[in-house]
Design goal:
mainly beta, six-stranded parallel beta sheet, 10% helix
Length: 181
């Protein structure tokens, strides 16, 4: 934990790393709130050509096994966010769109980068991909193996590739699930 904390700009109390130490690459500013749990099999990367790529992690956040968070500009994880294993938050692609530029090993362009915001209480299930420029509203759940390419509002269940709203998460809907359990 001390080695990982050395890469952080700010660290709240009760950081719990399980299964090792996350891999951190590139120039990235990471700020972590209180009571956060992060798998040691997680990767945090900052785009080398961006000015101060920033990852802001709120309080009571879980980041699961084999998750990659690639910060192009800024990624914000609100309070009480849950990210299951093998998620990928892609704030930058790493390669340019043009084939000849890729063949030359050139980096991705600034316009290929963007922010990602997960508001409070968002839950990403296993294998979810979030693309640049996406905001996911409060209390929204994204189903396993979904690819989110556009903003999602608060209080919905979304699924698919590309992810689409499956249903609204109303208090009545949540009670139905509780009653069925």
């Amino acid at each position: 934990t001390p080695a990982f904390k050395g890469r952080l700009s700010q660290c709240g109390k009760n950081l719990y790393l399980y299964g090792g130490i996350p891999f951190v690459s590139g120039p990235i500013s990471i700020s972590i709130g209180d009571n956060t749990r992060i798998s040691g099999h997680t990767t945090f990367s900052g785009r080398p050509l961006s000015e101060n790529p920033t990852l802001l992690i709120g309080n009571n956040v879980d980041v699961g096994w084999q998750t990659t968070i690639a910060v192009g500009t800024t990624i914000i994880l609100g309070n009480n966010v849950r990210i299951a294993g093998r998620a990928f938050l892609s704030g930058y692609p790493g390669h340019p769109i043009e084939a000849s530029a890729r063949a030359k090993g050139l980096p991705c362009l600034d316009e290929q980068c963007g922010d990602i915001i997960l508001e409070d209480d968002v839950w990403l299930a296993t294998g979810v991909f979030i693309m640049k420029g996406v905001t996911i509203g409060k209390r929204t759940i994204v189903a396993a193996n979904s690819v989110v390419t556009h903003d999602l509002p608060s209080d919905v269940l979304a699924a698919g590739n590309p992810a689409k709203i499956i249903r609204r998460l109303t208090p009545e809907c949540i009670q139905e699930v509780r009653d069925a359990s």
